[in-house]
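WARN no homologs supplied; continuing
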Amino acid sequence: MKKIFKGLTALVLAVSLLAACGEEEQPNNFVSITGIPATAVIEAGETVGPVTASISANDGLATLVIRKDGSTLETINFNGETSASHEFSYTSTDEDANSNVVFEFVATDSNGDTQTVTHVLTVGAVATTIRIAENIEEDAVWETGKTYILGGRITVTNGATLTIEPGVVVKGETGSGANATALVIARGAKINAAGEPDQPIIFTAVADEIEPGMVASPNMDPDIDGLWGGLLVLGKAPSSFAGDVSEIQIEGIPPSDTNGLYGGDDPEDDSGVLKYISIRHGGANIGEGNEINGLTLGGVGSTTIIENIEVIANQDDGIEWFGGTVSVKNAIVWNSGDDALDTDQAWSGTMDNFILLCGANTDHALEIDGPEGSYNDAHTLTNGTVIGHPASELGDFRDGARGTFENIYFFGFPDPAETDGRGDLSLSGDVSLANFENGILNFNSLEVTLADGVTLETVFRNGTHEHASEVALGENTVGADKSAFEGWSWAAVAGQLDDL
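OK structure emitted
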């Protein structure tokens, strides 16, 4: 926390106390306290100190009592030493806001003689914007009504839990390369970010003037990307890595940062809760071809709860799974820069109820990759609506892709024959083709509204058309339930879902 001192000139009070000696008064031995400033000014929630009180008494010290507004905060006992020191700091509370807090430091010697030094702490208003500059190594709470600025790559480290209350806005400072800002939940750490339908938690860039209580940005277009990093959650669940190693470094985090490791052998690993989260304007580049996804899930376990997620204008993928077992329910991706949904390394959860709104920079709505090591597992994508763009493809299933893809409705894609292959769904590589033939890669109940003159075989390649059917626009019988996104998502508030 920010530590501010004003008027730090040490206050040195040396008072000679008088004692009665018969009818004649004589001065007592000296008791002194130095090192305590007379005043300081901070905002509510900030910390004053630490400062060191130096105490001395010729007759030997007995106690040092520290009082706040007349009530004792702490008592330090001594054993008759003639000098000692004590370090003191105080973190102000919301109750201290807009007031003067009076601290008294009272030293007493073995004869009962005392000396008192007073410190007046002026506490300002409750801070509503807080900059986070260091990793979170113990439990922390980010409070409703406040905005938190990520001053770098901030990691919640092993054993710590970050709680983000409903309505909080988190903004990443602008940066790229090693200076790209991001929030990383390391293995063994947890995030408890449970927004609510009327108070979503928003991750965005500092250039965004959005404030707590808003849903739509007042100044940013929904296609501006790459202004900060993104949110990365890492866990200990099984993943399929080349060479069958047990852990690797997540993409988007420099290898020098070991907090970027993920993978393990605990399929039920718990990384916490993400609910009603909107992630915007991210995807900063940390190196050639190495950007950060909007939401990265690396080896995340099945007891982690992820529901009601929105990713907007991310320079790389919207959501990418790297192995793990976590399932996601209700996700919307709008204007992703690369792929809307990307799966890798034998992720084995379920993505249930999703809407993908492809933009001018979206490569694939779906990019599905197979395992990289001998560990094999498969995932399911179900109940999705995919809205195309002339620049985008429905999906690429490659490198031994496997899994089940069902109840998905596609529309708005171009004629692949006129766009150099854009607008199709294809299987890449012999292993992917074999998996399709052998029932390891499955497609069920795919529906599409085709451009004029386009056939199912042109769009759904490699025989996948056998699991697809053509429907008129708006006559689909499969797809997402858009009601899950109403009210809290920018896409819904902006009218992007009105015609679904």
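The chain has a mean pLDDT of 92.
OK
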